[in-house]
């Protein structure tokens, strides 16, 4: 890291991929951008309310207006900007694209390097709460031998990374880029973690098995057995499933029957979504509607009941996407992806799994053992959902320490 | 926090004192609504461009920016408003909801009453070009014997009709409401026409077979046989033994199932999440442009200077109506309400006339139409025209209606 030039990059300009040098980066959003955002929220043209009394038609008007009210008045971007700038950020060009990442080295010796990948609708803010517990375990009830160096990239087309100008940035390519990144940082031994797209990419890293990758951890495993995938269109679980397996089947059935539309729209027509690029509330609602349980959680949060996530957490993530104008470039990852959801990919290296109850489906141990020949850790948790690092950082950190212990 | 600051929706949707009354309806949007729209278009926060060189990721940025430039500068809503105001517009409450409609009586005796229903992303604007030829045929190269009285309602949650405040307004309920409307207008014999949702609604009118309904015409018939539908839902294999016309229809449907379903799945499951199309004019416009591939290509050509069937003004008239009436989400809710299969036969036993246009989502083969409609009184396969038949090819559609309904007069 020789060049100390600080780079500011935000908003819509596509980057043709600058230098492979690792350049320090600081986030400085102009006040005019924040004023503009608030103005747009206040000028929202609202539709009428839903004709039902629950979430079955989507994000309810009351939730959207509670969110907008807070966002336009009390919400303060500068708080998360300061938290972000309190950790080191960098940019480096990999495979023709600028990749942004947070990089925090532990002061402990023999810290295990881990690259942690977010998903959609996500960003590096999802992982902020786990950085210090991972890199500085003794300050968080852990031991020095559990320390990690942490690398947290922004996906291509998300946050502060560049927006690809041509097709091709699919999950396998991102996985290769992450291996390049860890190598560029000088690591010959490291692990990888992810949820949502981060899980798919982390498992692809497992499939690619770059030298140096010791093992992976996932909180959204791709481990649904073939006979289950085949049974899902018929909505009937095969006979003889255990209670855990039946529960997983029901959750998967619900997801594939009711919860896929946003993913199908982004997968087929990401460019049509001008409404989420032009309307802050449009973007916010689209992001809140990732899955039924997350939406319920977020609605409760905006109604005043914080659990796992605060209003600021939710808006920090949405605001990054707004300020970087990455709603559509982020959606394009769905268009790029050709890999099926959720059949196993054939990961033969060590795998650690955390199965959270409110995830899209809670993976049963039996399926994990079938999918991962080298399953080194499986934990079934009592609480937590799709955004594990964000909602339940202590639980996730606990699983990463335990899960990766055997690889150190 | 500004909620809906512009009163853009004519009479309220509350029930009037005399429920059956047919009240004249005045269309008049204030200048402030048009200024606000223009400002919002000019203020659009644009995403980056698609990474492909075609429409395979959705509506291309260049097309949307061309549309935006025209919409914010040269487009003039007052032109279409004047055309609408020159027609007789009414509102009446049916089944608890205000239903708006245009009603033009022919001067010809023996004119056949006809109710014409639009679809999504549509409105009564789609049918304006057929009113004159249908009601005043002699001024359009036709015969007095081919005259129609024309009734053109706005669907529940669309245009100037009320937006339902509770669930239940699916195509079956609208079909019943349309029969009530025709009775209320004093018609004891009438026919019904529709495409897109209008096609589903006239099929339901056919199923309900109210006294007075003589026949229906559809340019979006429900004819796809069960085994073909199954193959489409599973993504193959192609059913065996299809004729050339049937295979052509299968291929177009297969394309639609594989590439075109996504916006409809979103509207059917999460219509309320679409704040982006209620708040952003360009968001709304893009969403409307992305109905199907052939329509989008047609519209792209119009904005490229090659008008054929649809002009830029046509396209923007329809989008602007939805914007001004704030019906983007209420119109999407119809997909959520609907429980019927869009394409399957519905057991319509009354007389049916079918027009199959080449650029429709699928061009129904005669064989499927005959299987679906035991009382098929007319079938024609046109050489030109797509999904928005009345709008793009008014002369062809009018001719089809004259021919198709002759036998029931």
Describe this structure in words.
The complex is a heterodimer of chains A (408) and B (409). Chain A has 408 residues and is of the alpha/beta class. Chain A has a single domain (23-223, 259-407), classed as Alpha/Beta hydrolase fold, catalytic domain (Rossmann fold), CATH 3.40.50. Chain A has 17 helices and 9 strands. A 9-stranded mixed sheet of chain A has the order 1-2-3-5-4-6-7-8-9, sandwiched between helices. Chain A is globular. The relative contact order of chain A is 0.15. By secondary structure, chain B is an alpha/beta fold. Chain B has a single domain, classed as Rossmann fold, CATH 3.40.50.1820. In chain B, 43% of the residues lie in helices and 12% in strands. In chain B, strands 1-2-3-5-4-6-7-8-9 form a 9-stranded mixed sheet, with helices on both faces. In chain B, strand 2 (89-94) and strand 3 form a beta hairpin. In chain B, helix 4 packs across helix 17, helix 5 packs across helix 6 (197-208) and helix 9 crosses helix 14 (328-337). Residues 1-16 of chain B have low confidence and may be disordered. Chains A and B meet through helix 2, helix 9, helix 10, helix 11 and helix 14 of A and helix 9, helix 10, helix 11 and helix 14 of B.
Short description:
The complex is a heterodimer of chains A (408) and B (409). Chain A is of the alpha/beta class and 408 residues long. Chain A contains 17 helices and 9 strands.
User: What profile does the largest beta sheet of chain A have?
Assistant: 9 strands, mixed
Whole-number total of structural domains of chain A: 1
Strand order of the largest sheet of chain B: 1-2-3-5-4-6-7-8-9
- N-to-C SSE series of chain A? EHHHEEEHEHEHEHHHHHHHHEHEHH
Number of helices of chain B: 17
List the total number of helices of chain A: 17
User: Which CATH class of chain A?
Assistant: Alpha Beta
Number of strands of chain B: 9
Strand content of chain A: 5-15%
- Uncertain regions spanning at least 5 consecutive residues of chain A: 1-13
Helix/strand-derived class of chain B?
Answer: alpha/beta
CATH superfamily of chain A: Alpha/Beta hydrolase fold, catalytic domain
Q: What's the rounded overall pLDDT mean of chain A?
A: 94
Q: How much of the residues of chain B is beta strand, in percent?
A: 5-15%
- Radius of gyration of chain A, taken over Cα atoms and rounded to an integer in Å: 20 Å
Overall shape of chain B: it is globular
Q: Helical residue percent of chain A?
A: 40-55%
Measured between the Cα atoms of the first and last residue of chain A, the distance is 27 Å
What is the CATH T-level topology of chain B? Rossmann fold
Distance between the termini of chain B: 57 Å
**Strand line-up of the largest beta sheet of chain A:** 1-2-3-5-4-6-7-8-9
């Amino acid at each position: 890291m020789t060049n100390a030039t600080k780079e500011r990059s935000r908003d819509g300009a596509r980057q043709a991929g600058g230098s492979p040098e690792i350049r320090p980066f600081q986030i400085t959003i102009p006040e005019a951008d924040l004023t503009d955002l608030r103005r747009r929220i206040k000028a929202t043209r609202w539709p009428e309310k839903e004709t039902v009394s629950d979430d079955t038609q989507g994000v309810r008007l009351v939730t959207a207006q509670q969110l907008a009210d807070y966002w336009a008045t009390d919400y303060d971007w500068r708080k998360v900007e300061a938290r972000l700038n309190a950790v080191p950020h960098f940019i480096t060009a990999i495979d023709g694209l600028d990749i942004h990442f947070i990089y925090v080295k532990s002061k402990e010796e023999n810290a295990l390097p881990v690259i942690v990948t977010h998903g959609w609708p996500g960003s590096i803010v999802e992982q902020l709460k786990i950085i210090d517990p991972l890199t500085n375990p003794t300050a968080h009830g852990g031991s020095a031998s559990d320390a990690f160096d942490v690398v947290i990239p922004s996906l291509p087309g998300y946050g502060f990374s560049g927006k690809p100008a041509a097709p091709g940035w699919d999950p396998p390519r991102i996985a290769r880029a992450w291996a390049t990144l860890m190598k560029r940082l000088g690591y010959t031994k490291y692990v990888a973690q992810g949820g949502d797209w981060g899980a798919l990419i982390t498992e692809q890293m497992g499939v690619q098995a770059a030298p140096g990758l010791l093992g992976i951890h996932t909180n959204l495993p791709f481990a649904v057995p073939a006979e289950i995938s085949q049974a899902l269109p018929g909505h009937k679980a095969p006979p003889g499933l255990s209670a855990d397996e039946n529960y997983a089947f029901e959750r998967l059935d619900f997801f594939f029957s009711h919860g896929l539309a946003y993913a199908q729209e982004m997968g087929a027509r990401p460019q049509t979504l001008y409404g989420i690029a032009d309307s802050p509330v449009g973007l916010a609602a689209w992001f809140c509607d990732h899955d039924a349980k997350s939406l319920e959680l977020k609605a409760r949060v905006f109604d005043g009941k914080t659990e796992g996530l605060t209003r600021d957490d939710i808006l920090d993530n949405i605001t990054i996407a707004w300020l970087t104008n990455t709603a559509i470039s982020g959606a394009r990852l769905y268009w790029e992806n050709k890999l099926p959801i959720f059949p196993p990919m054939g990961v033969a290296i060590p795998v650690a799994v955390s199965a959270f109850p409110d995830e899209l489906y809670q993976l049963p141990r039996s399926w994990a053992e079938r999918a991962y020949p080298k399953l080194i850790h499986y934990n079934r948790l009592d609480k937590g959902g799709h955004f594990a690092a964000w909602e339940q950082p202590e639980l996730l950190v606990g699983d990463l320490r335990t899960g990766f212990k055997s690889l150190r | 926090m500004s909620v809906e600051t512009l009163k853009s929706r004519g009479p309220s949707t509350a029930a009037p004192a005399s429920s059956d009354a047919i009240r004249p309806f005045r269309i008049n949007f204030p200048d402030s609504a048009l200024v606000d729209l223009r400002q919002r278009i000019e203020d659009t926060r644009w995403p980056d461009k698609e990474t492909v060189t075609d429409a395979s990721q959705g509506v291309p940025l260049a097309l949307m920016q061309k549309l935006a430039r025209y919409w914010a500068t040269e487009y003039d809503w007052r032109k279409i408003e004047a055309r609408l105001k020159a027609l007789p517009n009414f509102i009446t409450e049916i089944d608890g909801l205000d239903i708006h409609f245009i009603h033009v009586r022919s001067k010809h005796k023996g004119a056949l009453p006809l109710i014409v229903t639009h679809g999504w992303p549509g409105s009564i604007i789609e049918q304006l070009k057929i009113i004159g030829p249908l009601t005043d045929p002699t001024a359009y190269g036709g015969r007095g014997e081919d005259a129609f009285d024309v009734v053109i309602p706005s669907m529940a949650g669309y245009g100037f009709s009320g937006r339902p405040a509770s669930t239940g307004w699916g195509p079956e309920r609208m079909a019943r409401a349309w029969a009530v409307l025709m009775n209320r207008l004093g018609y004891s014999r009438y026919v019904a026409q529709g495409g897109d949702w209008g096609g589903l609604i006239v099929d339901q009118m056919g199923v309900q077979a109210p006294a007075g309904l003589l026949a229906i015409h559809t340019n979006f018939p429900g004819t796809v046989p069960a085994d073909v539908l199954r193959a489409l839902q599973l993504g193959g294999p192609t059913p065996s033994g299809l004729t050339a016309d049937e295979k052509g229809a299968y291929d177009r449907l297969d394309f639609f199932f594989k590439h075109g379903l996504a916006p409809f799945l979103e509207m059917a499951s999460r219509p309320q999440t679409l704040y982006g199309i209620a708040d952003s004019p360009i968001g709304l416009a893009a969403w409307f442009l992305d109905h199907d591939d052939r329509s989008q290509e047609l519209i792209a050509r119009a904005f490229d200077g090659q008008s054929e069937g649809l002009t830029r003004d046509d396209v923007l008239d329809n989008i602007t109506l939805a914007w001004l009436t704030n019906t983007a989400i209420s119109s999407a809710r119809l997909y959520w309400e609907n429980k019927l299969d869009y394409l399957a036969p519905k057991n319509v036993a009354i007389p049916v006339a079918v027009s199959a246009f080449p650029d429709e989502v699928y061009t129904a083969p005669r064989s499927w139409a005959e299987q679906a409609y035991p009382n098929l009184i007319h079938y024609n396969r046109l050489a030109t025209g797509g999904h928005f038949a009345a709008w793009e090819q008014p002369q062809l559609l009018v001719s089809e209606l004259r021919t198709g309904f002759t036998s029931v007069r």
